[in-house]
Design goal:
With 172 residues, this protein is an all-alpha fold. The chain contains 4 helices and no strands.
């Protein structure tokens, strides 16, 4: 096997794989668009950015493996890889991707909340003291409610018993 035949064989494996990778990126892009709901102009700009982002690695691989020589067969293998991915793998990958994006979003939300809390503590140090006192008072009030709950229910039961006794006493 000469170097050119090895390159051709390698390209016949790599290019459909790159097509499948572009299909995976396209699934990610679709899910992100569905979650963010951008306007018309923003979608057009993000489409342009997506395809430029995908074209860069494809042309890099073509240039590094073949030295810039692109044949028509290579250009057909890339959409074939995308089509195979979208037809056979995409329905099974979309749901876990959606789950991952939701979890990543929740993680970013928690990170933003933690950074916001740290900024409040840093820039407004007395707010931490107020927050601590507020938390302690709420905890103490909840504890008192929990302690007096049996007393409340027993007093309610006694009151109902006395009221029923009074009603029976007033009947002629």
């Amino acid at each position: 096997m000469t170097q050119t035949v090895a390159q051709e064989f390698f390209l016949f494996l790599v290019i459909p794989g790159m097509g499948a990778g572009i299909g995976l990126l396209f699934d990610c892009y679709r899910l992100l668009l569905r979650r963010t709901r951008l306007g018309y102009f923003s979608i057009q700009l993000s489409d342009l950015f997506f395809w430029v982002l995908c074209a860069g690695p494809v042309f890099y691989v073509f240039f590094m493996i073949t030295g810039g020589e692109v044949r028509f067969v290579h250009l057909l293998l890339l959409p074939a890889g995308i089509a195979v991915y979208l037809k056979f793998l995409s329905p099974y990958v979309r749901e876990p991707l959606n789950f991952c994006f939701i979890k990543i979003g929740e993680g970013f939300y928690c990170l933003v909340q933690a950074l916001r809390f740290c900024a409040q503590v840093l820039f407004f140090p007395f707010r931490l003291a107020v927050w601590g006192v507020n938390f302690a008072l709420q905890f103490f009030c909840g504890l008192l409610r929990l302690i007096f709950l049996p007393v409340k229910f027993s007093l309610r039961w006694v009151w109902r018993w006395i009221r029923e006794l009074w009603r029976n006493f007033r009947k002629p």
